[in-house]
Design a protein that fits this description.
Elements (H helix, E strand, L loop, with lengths): L1 E4 L7 H9 L4 E4 L2 H10 L6 E4 L24 H9 L3 H4 L3 E5 L4 H6 L9 E3 L5 H13 L1
Parallel strand pairs: 1-2, 1-3, 3-4, 4-5
Helix pairs in contact: 1-6
């Protein structure tokens, strides 16, 4: 099963639809707290996490999120990765970034770049290409 975490459902519907049509089970969460809770409760079932790096920092956030490190939402995904990777079981779940972040050097400077299978820009990846990317990652 794929856990997909992103605060924008509208822009991800085509990705989710393509993954489901390809035979993948996808669990989508917009809210950080609910997504992290689902991750902890279903660790054994999750084959891959697809995560956006940018999340709005409004509303109630889990206390483990260090808001001072999110840069007003630009790096919230890094905090989510940090929390997911706190336990050996969580760290063992493969993760990839699918984001709108445009700055190429952001990836190179990001701590998250060392903790994920890949970093993909939404504008560069068609839904069918995401299916291929996911399939290739899960074969390894």
């Amino acid at each position: 099963m794929i856990l997909f975490l992103d605060d924008e459902m509208m822009f991800n519907e085509s990705y989710i639809e393509a993954l489901v049509e390809a035979g993948f089970e996808v669990e989508f969460h917009r809210e950080i707290g609910k997504g992290l809770a689902y991750f902890q409760d279903h660790l054994r079932d999750i084959e891959l996490v697809i995560l956006d790096i940018m999340f709005a920092v409004t509303g109630k956030l889990p206390t483990a999120i260090d808001v001072t490190k999110t840069q007003n939402g630009l790096r919230t995904g890094e905090e989510i990765l940090r929390i997911m990777n706190m336990s050996p079981a969580g760290k063992s779940v493969p993760k990839m970034i699918l984001t709108n972040v445009a700055a190429d050097d952001f990836y190179e400077k990001s701590a998250a770049s060392k903790e994920v299978l890949g970093w993909y820009r939404k504008r560069d990846v068609l839904p069918s290409e995401l299916v291929e990317i996911v399939t290739n990652h899960l074969k390894k």
